Amino acid sequence: MNVHSAVDRTTRYTVVGAICALMHNAVMIVGGCAGGHYLPLSLLAFCIVTPMGYLLHCRLTFRVSPFWPDFVRFASGMATGFPLYFLVMAVLCSGLHLAVAFAAPITTVALYFWNYASAHWALRCRLPFG
């Protein structure tokens, strides 16, 4: 893989990631303003954003066809980031008493790199590199 293609794919990932982050944070912030707790809101956001993120990453970021085993890997990768996500949210919301509207975007940025590596593993591991 050359540097240009890696930069191009990272740029596409960032755009799709931003779309997913906006969807996720919309669920979290609207739910938080309505009095919801970050735990069930996080699960709801996961159920909404994960399939949409997978499809967007297939089409736009990695330019591969959707494939059920890839979706399972993708969802698994996103799910393994949940303990870290919950830990950061708990520290920010329960420990520091930040509102979900502030804590969710901070946590989203903190998990960007984990999510990038996870998506790359899920959607590129079956393709030859180079």
How does this model look, in words?
- By secondary structure, the chain is mainly alpha-helical.
- The longest helix has 31 residues, at 3-33.
- The chain is 82% helix and 0% strand.
Task: Write a brief structural summary.
The protein is mainly alpha-helical and 130 residues long. 82% of the residues lie in helices and 0% in strands. Helix 1 packs antiparallel against helix 2 (38-61), helix 1 packs antiparallel against helix 5 and helix 3 runs antiparallel to helix 6 (112-124).
Low-pLDDT stretches: none
What is the mean pLDDT? 88
Q: Kindly estimate the percentage of residues that lie in beta strands according to DSSP.
A: under 5%
General form = elongated
Radius of gyration: 15 Å
Listing every helix as H and every strand as E from the N terminus to the C terminus, the arrangement reads HHHHHH
Quantity of strands, as a count: 0
Structural class estimated from helices and strands? mainly alpha
Our measurement of the CA-to-CA distance between the termini, rounded to an integer number of angstroms, reads 4 Å
> What percent of the residues sit in helical stretches (DSSP H or I)?
over 70%
Number of domains: 1
Largest beta sheet, briefly?
A: none
How many H/I helices?
6
